Structure formats: C-alpha cells, structure tokens
Amino acid sequence: METVWAPWRMAYILSEKDRNCFFCHKLREPARDAENYVIYRGKEAFALLNIYPYNNGHLMIAPYAHVSSLTALRPEQLLELFDITRRCEQALREAMRPEGFNIGINVGKVAGAGVEDHLHVHIVPRWNGDTNYMTTISETRVIPQQLEDAYKLLFPYFSENRRFHSLNV
Ligand SMILES: [Zn+2]
C-alpha cells in the first residue's frame, strides 16, 4: 500500500489514543506549540524541548504514532524519527556548540521510560564539566526563562528553508 500524507487523518488517529498521553496531548495543540516547546513537526514525527531537562538543550523526538516500541513503527516512521533526531543533533551542534551528545531511547518503565506508552528519543548535549547540572536542577526548579531561551535559540534551526544534510539531498 502506498503511504499518503493525509494530515486530516491526525484527528482520527489521535482520537483512538490514550487521551492522557503527554506526547499525544501536545500533538493535539498545534496552536500552542511555542508554549509546549514543540520545536518541529514533520510528517511522521516531531521534536520538543524536555521541560525536565538533564541538560540545557535536552530535546525529545517522538513519532506521531502512539506506540511503545521501535518494532511497531513502519519504515517511513522510523526513518523520519531518526532524520529529525539528526536535525536536532545538527541544530544543537550549531547553536550550542556542545562537546558531545547522549542519544537514546528508554523502552519500558524498568528501563527508565518516563512516558512508557509513547516511544521517544532523547538527545542531550554534553559539555565538559556539566555533570553537576542534574543536581542543580533537582534542587531548584527548571527556570522557565531558560527553557524559553533554549526554544528561541533552537527554533530558527528547524525552519524549512534551512538546509539540513537530509538523506534525500
Ligand atoms: Zn501518545
């Protein structure tokens, strides 16, 4: 079967899913992308800032499909999930000049998944000597201003006009 990009199907797809799902909830509010720190919407997946970051610039990339495992994704969903992850890596690299990254997926609660029903990739930029960050933010709350600054800094990197090293180019 040929896959057709049919955005009107989104309401139907989402209506069947868990209404309490954090990611599906954000997807249903396109007008509130800035408040929700949704930084990019693709055809099959999207990216947003983690409001409980392990580090400044911590992003999450999730498929639109409400699935809990990589094995449930169709090839085109898998491809875009990782293509957006790569965009995130590039945007973070250019905007924040990190010295490294942690990129990973927690599948299942036992593995540390915070939202275990909806698969998502974490990408955390790392700098030398940043290991105290988690302690710092667990003692104080994440400052909204810091999230807003990160959002404003990164958002331009996800403009459609911007050139990314896409698989298709
Ligand atoms: Zn979901």
TrEMBL record:
Binding site for substrate: 50, 112-115, 122
Positions annotated as active site in the UniProt record: 120 (tele-amp-histidine intermediate)
InterPro entries in the cross-refs: AP-4-A_phosphorylase, FHIT, HIT-like, HIT-like_sf
Family annotation (PANTHER family): AP-4-A PHOSPHORYLASE (PTHR42997:SF1), HIT FAMILY HYDROLASE (PTHR42997)
Sorted UniProt keywords: Nucleotide-binding
Keyword Nucleotide-binding among UniProt keywords: yes
Entry GO MF terms: catalytic activity; nucleotide binding
SUPFAM superfamilies, per the entry: HIT-like
Superkingdom of origin: Bacteria
CDD domains, sorted: FHIT
Motif residue range(s): Histidine triad motif: 118-122
Domain HIT residue range list: 22-133
Lineage, top ranks: Bacteria, Candidatus Moduliflexota, Candidatus Moduliflexia, Candidatus Moduliflexales, Candidatus Moduliflexaceae
Protein name listed in UniProt: Histidine triad (HIT) protein
